[in-house]
Amino acid sequence: MDDEKDEFLNNNNKNTKEKDGIEKGTNRQKEDDDSSFTSWQSESKKLMNDYEWKHSLKSDQEDQENQKFAKINFDESSDGIHYESFQEKLPKLKKQRNHNLIKQVSVIFGFFFIILLFMLYFISPLSKLEDINISGNKFLSYEKILKASNLVEGEGLWSQYFLKRHVTENIKHMSPRVESVQIELSGLNDLKIRVHEYGEVAYEEDEKTNKYHPILSTGELMNESFKQSPKDLLILKKFNGSKHRISEVIEQYNRLHNSLRDLISVITLTPTLTNPDLTVLSMKDGNEVKVSFEDISERLNYYSKVSKSMPETGVVDMEIGVYSYPFSKKEEEEKRGKDSDKSKDFSDDKENKEGI
Fold first, then answer.
1. Does CATH place domain 200-347 in 3.40.50.620?
2. pLDDT band at 239 (very low <50, low <70, confident <90, very high)
3. Beta 178-186 vs 190-197: how paired, if at all?
């Protein structure tokens, strides 16, 4: 019994070992099968990936080629991209090309049209100077200004207008009376010349011819002569046409206040041995003022106070100091002045002799 039992157990152990071996072999086979399937699967995936990559690359190239002939339009309703084919785009391309062609042709025709207008304008009478208007001239005549300008009616407007600076200089050099000149276009083909003249402030009396020469505000003595002088202007006497002295007197006169200028009627040059620039100012209130002409603007400011303190009309002497005396003592003062001049001459002669 024991032997049978041991044999039975040994058989069971063998069967168990065989089963285990079979199961292990089966498992190994399964594992081999699984590994071979996995490798095959990976190879197939790799091939699929390569195929997809090549396909995507080809499709990208095709898309790039298609984008040359198609326009991408975003469709808001479908939330996608719409490709416009070349056939759909062709009418728009023709329309754009026609538009550019019309634009270029319009520019060319416009250019030639403008040139044609310029040619017609310069041929027409509108490009010729029709009329010359001169204003502001009080002493200078229209004919004299027109002659100095060298402008010619009926000649080219623009060729003369662009020379207006030269025309202005010609008119200025024509006469010392001209202060400034302005030339402007007036209307379609007219020119307007505005002349500003220096005003006259005084007249010089010529004792030889008994005529009067006008003096401008600049101190310029004009060569023109008149038989009578305006009553409201200053008269210069005994200056003998000395432009330097006349210019200095007018400069001093212009510095005075208007109220003082209105009081002076005549300025007479009365040189002495001691003062060759002495002048006598005849005032409209009846007084006379003795003063050197280079001191007129400075010393005549005291005239109002001195004249108010004078009991009667007389002479206000401002040659050295400032004092006054009535006309009744004028002869005495003049005699005293002559005596002082004689004594001065005597002392000068004495000094000259001693020097010799």
1. no
2. very high
3. antiparallel
For CATH 3.40.50.10960, the residue range(s) in the chain are: 200-347
Sign of the four-CA dihedral 295, 297, 299, 304:
positive
Which of 236, 246, 172 is CA-nearest to residue 203? 236
127-197 belongs to which CATH class?
Answer: alpha beta
Rounded to the nearest integer, the mean pLDDT of the chain is 79
Biggest alpha carbon–alpha carbon distance for the chain: 201
Rounded distance between C-alpha atoms, residue 303 and residue 288, angstroms: 10
All CATH 3.10.20.310 domain ranges in the chain, comma separated: 127-197
- Global pTM exceeds 0.85: no
| Cα–Cα distance for residue pair 294/318, rounded to 1 Å | 12
pLDDT single digits (tens) 317-346:
999 889 899 987 766 566 555 555 444 443
Type and span of the H or E element at 141: none
DSSP strand pairing (71-75 vs 80-84):
antiparallel
Higher pLDDT, 286 or 32: 286
Cα dihedral 250→254→259→260 (10° resolution): -40
